[in-house]
Amino acid sequence: MKRIVKDFSVKDFIMITIGIFLVAFGLEYFHIPNNIAAGGVSGLAIIINSFLSMIPVGAIILVLNVILFAVAFVTVGGGFGAKTLYASFGLSVIMWVMETFFTPGVLTEDLFINAAVGTFVIGIGMAMVFNYGASTGGTDILAKILHKYIHMDIGKALLVVDFIIGLASIATFGITAGLYALLAIVINGNLIDRLILGFNTSKELMIISKKEQEIIKFIIEELDKSCTVLNGYGGYTSEDIQVLYVILSRREYIRLRGFIKEIDPRAFISVNEVHEVLGEGFIDIKL
């Protein structure tokens, strides 16, 4: 085992827990009752459950993850981290609680709505889990094994594994449910990527103002951030100027914009969106 314990803050715990709850909800109330096996260990568990209906899907996911983690420790050396272990086994626990105490059933008979809403809810949950440095294990482990032994790119390996599960879904549940499962696999991957970008979006600002010292003080003291001061030269005025470069969250940007409007309405502000910022004050670069 290379690394089991990593920094696991209370915020990480809460957000990952919310994420796996959403995944469990999407599976239990939309995908599982309608036999939509949209890839991953959960999709494989839905297929197995169709043959072993006395075993809950959550329990099957737990057994599959235990087997996969054991195989991975032998073949690729583990190194999953506490967050991934928590998310993987926590998902099974939440699903077991739902199956035991709430008896999930079909909310709507419309297969399209079940596939679409279920995929959307699961996508939000998975994006939250990934965004806080965890994963739910499962087919990620199979992809690592394929990558090691046949040198297949991990992204392609994940797609191959999920596609095989999708084909198995067609053979098990018929062409309609199977094709919805394949569609959900494709949409889910793109949805997760876009949601993660949305979670991490920040504002990149370039500011030119004659009140630069007041602005710097506001950024440091009120927003608890820092900024970089760049020396520039005005092409029109032929004067030396200072350009402030800073990256802020959307809420911080709104506060700073309001402050600049009050003290220097003629200031120049250039704003861009950035989708990932790593380092002090933002996302840990080690994640």
UniProtKB/TrEMBL annotation:
Keywords: Cell membrane, Membrane, Transmembrane, Transmembrane helix. It is a multi-pass membrane protein. Residues 226-279 form the DUF2179 domain. It is found in: Cell membrane. One of its GO terms (cellular component) is plasma membrane. Its main location: membrane. The chain crosses the membrane at residues 12-32, 44-73, 85-105, 111-133, 154-173. The keyword Transmembrane applies. This is Uncharacterized membrane-anchored protein YitT, contains DUF161 and DUF2179 domains.
